[in-house]
Design goal:
Helices cover 35% and strands 20% of the residues. With 761 residues, it is an alpha/beta fold.
């Protein structure tokens, strides 16, 4: 009975136990077979790997590539430093592309002469120079006068062979390690810049390339060809590096009249490479112009596809060629856009959103959808004469400058689109712009809505006046990276702090923040105090010095930080003009000093000082940050606890766009602009009282003025004292800054509401 009961209990799990036992037994048997019988299948007599059946490629014992593929096998190179050698700090390159060995794509050299420097060379510079990443002009003249906007290299010898030799040597010496391709052309050549740039993107940089219009040597070998210099030619970096050691030999041994023949013979004799017109499936198309050619009437396919056209006899012909080929490029671009839009329309029906997901214009990003009322992009209203959203905040201003040109171009474009759509049935002409609206959408570009009063004329001559609303979009074009000079965060910043009697209550906090954020962290920053005495206080300075307490604080800091010296400058004036004060400070510092003009309410920190260094570039850019001004806590919190979170403080203030007190600039840039100002105003020093440092740079320097909000520059609330002796504009800005710094509209409304409630009770 017990055995039967036990079997009945184990019967459900019996198949599982039997299956596990059978599986384990078979796996053990299979392992023993593979160990005993698999040793000699792939080994030869000496135990080395034998050939695989079927002619398969030989693999390494570890499953990796064989001996012929060592370049593709990853290897770990361990770092080892000899302990007996002194440690040397590794110097990193300035740019990461230098460290990784990246090169720029294309360098262009234009050979010019005395007769054509001010004519054809200037025409080349105005037509195609700005399309190439780097272009230099080479001539044999001595001390040649360089036309505006051109970079000229003068070798001092007008012999053609010598000019070519010196040009190749100069290119190798200065640009041989920076560019992958070198395009050499004459100033009587018109080259399609975009086509040349597209050509080099399809060629391999690992080959020795000598590409151009191949010509036979006179009386030479038919196989040996040189590239005709009139049509330009392309040389790879590898070829230039191999050619450079032989240039001196070529100059001494090869006799030729034409520089392009001399260069071609040099490359063939020493490198064995002849010029080709076709390489890697790419063709170098050229076209030789006949006399009295009309570019607009040339319809040959060879002319339309030409990368280079030669000879160009005069400047007018160069401009006509550029206009013709630019029109061809533009027509191709428009046709490509239409093809892409048609493909998008065809594919939209297959998407989950269907036809509803098709945006207008086709291919442009959909308009920005705000998630709250604070993200709504407002429209600016305008007419043909006035703009009702002015930069200075006034409700109405005259439409002029770039805005007027923009509106005129948009109206013309709208009429052109309407006529192209409805002609020949209707022909439209503008009577009046009724209403105009525009806004900038950062996701797609500038949007316009126009209400036009139009006169429509039919084919039979009947006319009718109607109003029509049109919508247009000026999309964002190709984003370009603007080259900027290199700057570092190691530059010393010289802080300049002007102080008046009204600022004495805030000096202690400023010095404490300066000591904590710069002196304790050993930041490369210095401080200079500028004591502004009223004439009455200056007369009593021997008895009562109003800045004695500040000087005592400075002395305590110098005792605490022995290596720090904080100098001060005393000035007596009734009208503390920012420009006059800066004149005094500028004379006492070197020209390469980076100034940060601060205010007593500023809280200095390392984050902002680094941005001051990075955003200020000598002889290029000055930086005027817009500080964040906290609201009056009595109105914002009304007795409640202030916000403690660092992420909430930005809601309790605003960026004060009326203040230009803070500025970062180099002393050399200020001195240059100040010199121009002095020549303009002569001896009328009273003009300086109505100006700030911002006005000096804005009107008397050609530098970039970078003004941006700076969240790292925070100021506590304080009621500024506005000096009525300053100009009306400066006084008005000071009053506006005080008023807008009280509180936000919601806080002011709540304060008024509570006051009315209190008065009613």
């Amino acid at each position: 009975m017990r055995l039967a009961a036990l079997l009945a209990a184990l019967r459900p799990v019996l198949p599982l136990v039997l299956g596990l036992s059978l599986g384990c037994s078979l796996s053990l048997l299979r392992a023993s077979w593979s160990q005993s019988g698999g040793e000699d299948q792939c080994l030869g007599a000496a135990g080395r790997p034998g050939p695989f059946a079927g002619g398969a490629r030989l693999e390494a014992a570890d499953g990796g590539p064989g001996p012929g593929h060592e370049d593709f096998r990853p290897r770990i190179v361990p770092y080892y430093r000899d302990p007996n050698k002194p440690y040397k700090k590794v110097l990193r390159t300035r740019y990461i592309q230098t460290e990784l060995g990246f090169h720029e794509r294309l360098f262009v050299a234009v050979l010019t002469s005395k007769a054509t420097l001010n004519t054809l060379a200037v025409a080349v510079n105005k037509t195609v120079a700005h399309h190439f990443p780097r272009l230099l002009y080479f001539t044999g003249l001595r001390s040649a006068k360089v036309p505006h906007g051109m970079v000229l290299v003068a070798h001092g010898d007008e012999r053609p062979i010598w000019l070519m030799y010196e040009t190749m040597h100069y290119i190798h010496q200065h640009f041989g390690s920076d560019y992958d391709w070198f395009y050499i052309m004459q100033d009587d050549t018109y080259a399609q810049a975009e086509q040349v740039k597209a050509l080099v993107t399809h060629l391999s940089i690992n080959q020795d390339v000598y590409l151009g219009r191949a010509e036979e040597f006179i009386g030479g070998d038919e196989q040996a060809r040189y590239c005709h210099g009139g049509f330009g030619y392309l040389i790879s970096r590898s070829l230039l590096l191999k050619l450079h050691p032989h240039l001196d030999s070529c100059r001494n041994e090869i006799l030729s009249v034409r520089p392009d023949e001399w260069l071609g013979r040099c490359i063939i004799d020493f490198l064995g490479i002849a010029c080709v017109s076709q390489l890697q499936g790419q063709h170098y198309h050229t076209y030789e112009l006949a006399k009295n050619t009309e570019p607009e009437k040339e319809e040959e396919e060879e002319f339309q596809a030409a990368l280079a056209v030669h000879p160009v006899s005069d400047m007018t012909l160069m401009y006509r060629l550029h206009k013709h080929f630019s029109r061809i490029q533009l027509d191709r671009a428009y046709q490509e856009i239409q093809d892409l839009q048609m493909q998008i329309r065809n594919l939209t029906s297959l998407t989950p959103a269907g036809e509803a997901g098709l945006t207008w214009p086709v291919g442009i990003n959909a308009p920005f959808l705000p998630k709250s009322r604070f993200e709504v992009i407002s429209w600016d209203y305008f007419t043909e004469q006035h703009l009702f959203s002015c930069p200075d905040g006034s409700p109405k201003c005259e439409l002029s400058g770039a805005s007027k040109a923009d509106v005129s171009e948009i109206i013309e474009s709208a009429l052109a689109q309407l006529n192209s759509r409805y002609q020949p049935l209707l022909r439209f002409s503008k009577r009046q712009l009724l209403n105009g609206y525009r806004r900038f959408d950062p996701t797609r570009g500038m949007e316009y809505t126009l209400d036009l009063l139009l006169e429509a004329v039919t084919q039979k001559g009947h006319s009718h006046v109607l109003a029509k609303r049109v919508s247009l979009v000026r999309p964002l074009s190709k984003v370009e990276i603007i080259p900027m000079p290199y700057v570092t965060e190691a530059t010393r910043v010289q802080l300049v702090l002007p102080l008046t009697v009204q600022d004495l209550d805030f000096v202690a906090n400023f010095l404490d923040m300066f000591a904590m954020n710069t002196l304790d962290t050993h930041d490369n920053a210095l401080l200079t105090l500028l004591f502004i005495y009223h004439p009455y206080d200056a007369q009593r300075v021997s008895q009562v010095d109003v800045f004695a307490g500040v000087k005592a604080m400075v002395g305590e800091l110098e005792k605490r930080y022995a290596e720090v010296k904080i100098p001060w400058i005393s000035v007596k004036t009734e009208v503390p003009s920012q420009v006059k004060l800066m004149d005094i400070v500028s004379k006492k510092h070197p020209v390469d000093t980076l100034f940060f003009l601060a205010s007593v309410w500023t809280e200095i920190n390392m984050e902002f000082l680094n941005r001051c260094r990075m955003n200020t570039i000598s002889n290029w850019q000055v930086f005027f940050p817009v500080h964040f001004q906290e609201f009056n806590p009595a109105l914002v919190y009304r007795g409640e606890q202030t916000a403690s979170s660092s992420t909430d403080f930005l809601r309790d203030g605003h960026f004060d766009r009326h203040s230009f007190a803070e500025a970062c600039f180099y002393n050399s840039d200020y001195m240059t602009a100040r010199t121009k100002l002095a020549a303009d105003i002569l001896d009328r020093d009273e003009v300086l009282e109505s100006m700030e440092v911002f006005d000096v740079f804005l009107h008397y320097s050609g530098l970039h003025l970078f003004r941006a909000v700076e969240p790292g520059l925070v100021q506590k609330y304080a009621l500024r004292s506005c000096n009525p002796r300053l100009s009306e504009e400066l006084y008005h800005r000071c009053v506006l800054s005080n008023l807008e710094g009280l509180a936000s509209r919601s806080h002011l409304a709540m304060a008024l509401f509570e006051q009315e409630q209190a008065n009613s009770t």
